[in-house]
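Before relying on records like the one below, remember that each one covers exactly one chain. Contacts with other chains, cofactors or solvent are not represented anywhere in the record.
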Amino acid sequence: MQKQLKKNTILGKIKIKEISFLIFSLFVFNIKSFANEISLVEIKILDKISSKTSQLSLNIGKEIKFENLIIKVLKCKNSEFDDNPEVTAYMQVQDITLKNNDKVFVFNGWTFSSSPSITLFDHPVYDIWLIKCY
């Protein structure tokens, strides 16, 4: 009976070591993922009438009002390839001058920094370009 108890104790120690290693691994993984977490998005806005550009930094998940637009970025990701970096963002834009459709977005979709014409933001006054995420 003593040997059986000793064997279970050793087995228990191994399990405790495995569990502590697993917890340590998850902790290190979470620190790494928090370090890579993106919280700001940089965009450029062109006013087609005045030909002036403005550069804005937005917090992800927060709305910002620029002139007649309400802009919100929900997600942003930098590519993991160094040779040709690509930045993508999921953006929603509302025009507040349209009183009859205040729930409809002028733009609701993914944007790409390298080619903004893929998903066209079509507005009579403004153009928006994604610059970077950080």
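Residues 34 and 55 are 26 Å apart (CA to CA).
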